[in-house]
Amino acid sequence: MEWLLLLAVVMALILFLRKKLTFTFGLSPKTIEIRRIKGLKTLSDDLEKSLSESYMQNVEDRVKKENKLKENEYKWRLLDLKRYFIMTSLLKESPMFSEKVDELWHQMLMFTREYDDFSKKYLGSILHHSPNVKGSADPDLRGFFDWVYAELFLIKKENIHLYKGFFRYPVHPTIIDEFKNLPENDLIVKYFKSDTKYNTTVLSLISSMKKTANKVKDYEKSVINEKMKKSKREEKYNAMLIPVLSVSYFHYDEFSSYMKIRSATSSSCTSCGSASSCSSCSSDSSCSSCGGGGD
Fold it and tell me: How many DSSP H helices and E strands does the chain contain?
């Protein structure tokens, strides 16, 4: 009898932990929840108008039929797919880094005619799907993606869950320097679509990213100076919080890890415009091309 009682206690504990550790999606989002970037509301409205109600209902029915989704999960996946579509209208390169969001995109493609109509209404051309062909994300591309994502949108726990975390990869130091020092036109040529009808949004986004880049650099200098002043005293943990990208605040130790400066000898090279500035790969650099990415 004792072993049966023990077994019952163990099973109850396992069920309790499973329930506690299982992710729960919050209430369905009512809007895309954008930040105050000029023209972004218009862009968001144009996207919504391009998605017909009947088309998206068919997509939802298909996704729910083929997948066992949690309560409200579909709406959160759809929210992040819409956010991704917004990023594709602004950036030259915007890899897909969420398998669950990518799955919804794939289901949209199954309705060929409706997808073509949506793409042409929204962008004026077909929005091609890039399949996930890599086992892991390119760190430079993912770091840049996270930065732009956080400049455009509010980040909730549901978004973090669908992307398996944000800010795990640093933004390449070259990119931070470029956004601090290069003029807007040069940044557009390198990172953004120059033929988009949302030029106002692009310029506002660049302005916001420039402010962030300056905050990062200025904060690094202040920390270095503070450490020099404290060199003869016991250094205490710096609990100062800095508001830079997300709806949350970051401890400096966490943020400096995210935006860390990597040495030139270990920098990676990519053929995409949204990573390091090198144009060719040397023998000691890691080469990768743009693609679907993956997490």
Answer: 12, 4
Half-sphere exposure for 215 (CA within 13 Å, toward CB): 15
Distances (CA, A) of 196 to 38, 86, 125, 199, 291: 15, 12, 11, 6, 21
Q: Where are the beta strands (DSSP E) in 186-260?
A: 241-242, 250-251
3, 72, 81, 147 from 153: Cα distances, Å: 53, 19, 13, 10
pLDDT (average), residues 268-288: 31
Percent of the chain at pLDDT > 90 equals 49
- In sequence order, the 6+-apart residues with CB closer than 8 A to the CB of 48 are 82
Q: What does the alpha-carbon distance between residue 53 and residue 75 come to, in Å, rounded to a whole number?
A: 14
Q: What is the DSSP letter of 168?
A: -
Measured from the Cβ of residue 5, the count of other Cβ atoms closer than 10 Å reads 9
Categorize the per-residue pLDDT at 215 as very low, low, confident or very high, splitting at 50, 70 and 90: confident
What pLDDT is attached to residue 220?
A: 56
Q: Is residue 151's pLDDT more than 80?
A: yes
Buried b / exposed e along 252-281 (16+ C-beta atoms within 10 A): beebbebbeeeeeeebbbbebebbbeeeee
> Per-residue confidence at 276, pLDDT binned at 50, 70, 90?
very low
Q: What angle do CA 295, 247, 143 make, to 5 degrees?
A: 35
8 A C-beta contact, residue 59 and residue 118: no
The C-alpha torsion from 17 through 19 and 21 to 26, rounded to 10°, is -160
pLDDT classification of 218: cutoffs 50, 70, 90: low
